[in-house]
Design brief:
The structure is a single chain. The chain is built from eight helices and nine strands. With about 260 residues, it is an alpha/beta fold. It binds S-adenosylmethionine. The site of S-adenosylmethionine has 22 residues, from helix 5.
Length: about 260
């Protein structure tokens, strides 16, 4: 299987999961079939994780994968922000990222990964058990727009590619406009739904994060495509960090 990649900023023109060939296709030519590229749907992620994590003949052996930034970089970012080992950490849209595992190995003891895709939550739960990490790490199958946690339950939230997944139709629409290409009514409608979905994520993050807590949002998208989600809700102070490997870190404090 080709390595899945989320590429950077405006260079991201097409990335498509081809379930039939169990391969990721990436190129920089805008094409009409890109219109099908929408990773906000749980069924898409279920299909991907069933393919890569399952025991069937299409299994690729991809047990873990980190999008946008390696788990070690996130850990370094936490250390740099002096998050103590007893900080309550929430990894939203955790997928099969190694972040919770790496953070547990580094001494963090209160880690929760949330993802709406049942196959990946089951696989990561089994993996944590196998490694004896169940006291420190748990995984929960939930939509991040409606999480089963009380207000102010977490000190730090990590979103590495979850908002990006929700916003693929929005980004696609913006890209078509930048390229002065036509935008179909169907794409426009999906883009609006994506915008509403991302707004509901950010609202939910504000609810479950304690005052003064930090959201580390990792994204392939430049500030013009992401900062607006926080500007609309007046409870965030956003500091954009310098781009790393073409990707961006938005450090957002819950005020
Ligand atoms: C690009 S992957 C990133 C995975 C992981 N955070 C990483 O860094 O490798 C996006 C993940 O977000 C999850 N996701 C997307 N929308 C979601 C939602 N509404 N609720 C929960 N999980 C969601 C997908 O299932 C997928 O695992």
């Amino acid at each position: 299987m080709a390595t899945p990649e989320l590429a950077s900023g405006v260079g991201l023109l097409r990335l498509e999961w081809e379930a039939d060939r169990s391969a990721w296709v990436f190129d920089t030519e805008p094409q009409e079939r890109f219109v099908h590229w929408d990773w906000s749907q749980c069924s898409r992620w279920d299909a991907r994780y069933t393919d890569v994590l399952g025991d069937g003949e299409r299994t690729t052996g991809e047990r873990t994968f980190d999008w946008i930034a390696p788990a070690d970089d996130v850990l370094a970012d936490l250390d740099a922000r002096a998050a103590g080992s007893d900080a309550r950490l929430l990894d939203v849209g955790c997928g099969n990222s190694l972040f919770c595992e790496v953070a547990a190995a580094a001494g963090f003891t209160r880690l929760v990964g949330v993802d709406y895709s049942r196959p990946v939550v089951d696989a990561m739960t089994a993996r944590a058990l196998e490694r004896g990490l169940q006291e420190r790490v748990s995984y929960c199958c939930s939509d991040v727009a409606r999480m089963p946690y009380a207000d102010a339950s977490f000190d730090v939230i990590v979103d590495k590619g979850c908002c990006d997944a929700a916003l693929t139709a929005w980004d696609h629409c913006a890209m078509q406009r930048r390229l002065k290409r036509p935008v179909s009514a169907e794409l426009e409608e999906r883009a609006e739904r994506a915008a509403a979905l991302a707004a509901s994520f950010v609202l939910e993050y504000a609810r479950v994060l304690r005052g003064g807590g930090t959201l580390l949002l990792y994204s392939y998208e430049e500030p013009q495509g992401r900062a607006c989600w926080f500007a609309e809700q007046r409870c965030w102070q956003v500091r954009q960090q310098p781009a790393r490997d073409g990707n961006y870190l938005y450090e957002c404090t819950r005020v």
